[in-house]
Every structure is written in structure tokens, then in C-alpha cells.
Design a protein that fits this description.
binds tetrahydrodeoxyuridine; five-stranded mixed sheet; alpha+beta; single chain
């Protein structure tokens, strides 16, 4: 199993814990820190819809709250709980911006997967070109 597949497997695991009673769209993420630790996250919905947190941000906030602020890659899997074969689930704009806060856009890898062996890899710069980040405020 290569390192992408390992991360996808953990994202699939994380997806099982998604709390999505309203959309039924379950998402899991596995974020690899430069310390070698994988931080998992799922989406957590709320009866007050805007209070919902995406899987990617759950993973990032978990990592940062544990003291890790440098990252290599994130694997993301998401789709309706009603379908067996999920499509690729790209991160929303807010999550891309959260990634931008902590990651090098040219190096950070975003792995979108439909299964352990069916995945595509992008850099953050590809998914969030000409971005605004911490450097702009220095
Ligand atoms: N969602 C994520 O967790 N990550 C994404 O990349 C896209 C959307 C969640 C938010 C909400 O719980 C559900 O998917 C439908 O938008």
C-alpha cells in the first residue's frame, strides 16, 4: 500500500463517524502532519445549518489544537450515504482557505478519492490559485 492509499484508508474510516443527519452527505478527511501523525476529521452538521463544520476543517482544527501546525497532505472522501459508489469530493472554498493558512501552496497535496485505489492528487496551488495568505499581512 502506498502512502496515498494509507491516507485514503484513514479518510474512509473517518467518514464513518460523520454526523450528517440533514444533508446525508458524509465526508471524511485524514491530514498528515510533518510530525508523521495523521489527524482525522468528519463533517459535523447542526440543526442551525451554518454552524456545520466540514471534515477538512475538523481535521485541521484537531491538529492545530494538538499543537501541530505543519502538514504534508490531506486525503478527502465524501458523498451521499445513499449511494455505494461515491464521486470525488473537492474541498469547499472556506476549507481551501484554512489549508492556505498552514500549508505551502506549491507543496501541500490534496488527495481526492472515490476508493482506496481510485484517487487524484492536486497541490493546494492548483485548487486555490493566486491566494491570499499570512504573507500578505506581514
Ligand atoms: N462538506 C464537507 O465536510 N467537506 C467538503 O469538502 C464539502 C462539504 C460537508 C458539509 C455538509 O455537512 C455536507 O458536506 C453537505 O454540504
Amino acid at each position: 500500500m502506498n502512502r496515498y492509499e494509507e491516507l485514503v484508508e484513514m479518510a474512509l474510516e473517518a467518514r464513518k463517524l460523520a454526523y450528517a443527519p440533514y444533508s446525508k452527505f458524509k465526508v471524511g478527511a485524514a491530514l498528515l502532519g510533518k510530525n508523521g501523525v495523521v489527524y482525522k476529521g468528519c463533517n459535523i452538521e447542526n440543526a442551525s445549518y451554518p454552524a456545520t463544520n466540514c471534515a477538512e476543517r475538523t481535521a485541521f482544527f484537531s491538529a492545530v489544537s494538538e499543537g501541530q501546525k505543519e502538514f504534508e497532505a490531506i486525503a478527502i472522501v465524501g458523498g451521499s450515504e445513499k449511494v455505494k459508489d461515491i464521486e470525488f469530493c473537492a474541498p469547499c472554498g472556506v476549507c481551501r482557505q484554512v489549508m492556505r493558512e498552514f500549508c505551502n501552496p506549491e507543496k501541500f497535496e490534496i488527495i481526492l478519492a472515490r476508493s482506496k485505489t481510485d484517487y487524484k492528487v492536486f497541490t493546494l496551488a492548483e485548487l486555490l490559485p493566486m491566494s491570499f495568505g499570512p504573507d500578505n499581512l506581514r
